[in-house]
Amino acid sequence: MYFDALYKRGERRLKNSKKGSGYVQSIQRAMAIIETLDKHGELGVSEIGEKLDLERSTVHRILSTLRGLGYINQNPANHKYSNSFKFFEIGNNVVQSLGFRKQAMPFMRELSAKSNEAVNLAVMDGKYVIYIDKIESPATIKVDLSVGKRMPAYCTGLGKVLLAYMPEAAVREFFKDESLIRYTNRTITDIDKLCQHLAQIREQGYAVDDEEYVDGLFCIAAPVWGHAKTVVAALSVALPKFLYSKSDEEIASIRDMLIDVAQRFSISLGYEAF
To answer: Taking the CB of the first residue and of the last residue of the chain, which one, N or C, has fewer CB atoms within 10 A?
Structure first.
């Protein structure tokens, strides 16, 4: 895998580096930490130090800087660290160079053609989801979910499916200091009910937003898994419910299409279910 090779190169560079090599040591160490988190997912300070043969104080200082700059997230439940989507926020060209959207597009086109509805790709951005790509519905009525738009995670299909695969303690920590705003009469505004709902989503493998954020909008979302067996994004099909006349069987068919496409996209990213 590309990131496996990248990690090994970074690890060798760090262990073999010497003063006078032309590298800036602090930057070299920071990049090695970023590559290590990409390879292993969430890690604590001691785990990173052991893998890179660095002192805890050095690792903690670098992580604090990276976190302050927005490149690293800390899980409030276990205090471990992971890479953030700051790299996406640097600009659209970064995402394109990584090939994520390009790799997603054939799967999105397939899903759009089969469902005849709008298809969206999103990632977590703190307590929100950010839409990073979409295909408009060929239908006359459009759903306004533009690329770059941020929406609350707790009441959108894409957001709920991403929250569902986070530890419950982390979800509760996210929302402990704020009320869950009621956007429609279907919005879940109780954290206990939300956590129960997320457990159900995790069990069934997909999420439904039935007019929870926008009246008239029905959305089905499924997780996209990365090579580290963590959820890295979500795909959705968005339907204008007030004009939607499909039967339950047809909606179930779209759901099954979505899950199948999301699974095959995950495999293309290096995910192995077993």
So the answer is: C
Q: Cα separation of 156 and 154, whole Å?
A: 6
Residue 272 has pLDDT above 50, yes or no: yes
Residues 2-84, CATH architecture: Orthogonal Bundle (1.10)
Least confident of 209-218, 236-245, 251-260: 236-245
For 255, how many CA atoms within 13 A lie in the half-sphere containing its CB?
A: 17
Task: State the average pLDDT over residues 89-94.
Answer: 52
User: Helix 168-175 crosses helix 191-204 at what angle (to 10 degrees)?
Assistant: 140
Q: How far apart are CA 168 and CA 197, in angstroms?
A: 11
As to burial, measured by CB atoms within 10 angstroms (0-12 exposed, 13-18 middle, 19+ buried), residue 48 is buried
Structure tokens at 32: 């090695």
| Closest to 237 in 3D by CA, of 215, 253, 213, 249 | 253
- In which residue ranges of the chain is CATH 1.10.10.10 found? 2-84
Residues 6 or more apart whose Cβ sits within 8 Å of residue 223: 161, 162, 164, 165, 205, 231, 233, 234, 262, 266
Domain with CATH 3.30.450.40 in the chain: 92-268
Tens digits of residue pLDDT in 30-64? 999 998 988 888 999 999 999 999 999 999 999 99
Q: Beta strand 128-135 with 150-152: parallel, antiparallel or unpaired? A: antiparallel
Contacts of 249 (CB under 8 A, 6+ apart): none
In this prediction, residue 18 has a pLDDT band, given cuts at 50, 70 and 90, of very low
Class of 92-268 per CATH? Answer: alpha beta
H and E: helices and strands count for the chain: 11, 8
**Is a pLDDT exceeding 50 seen at residue 170?**
yes
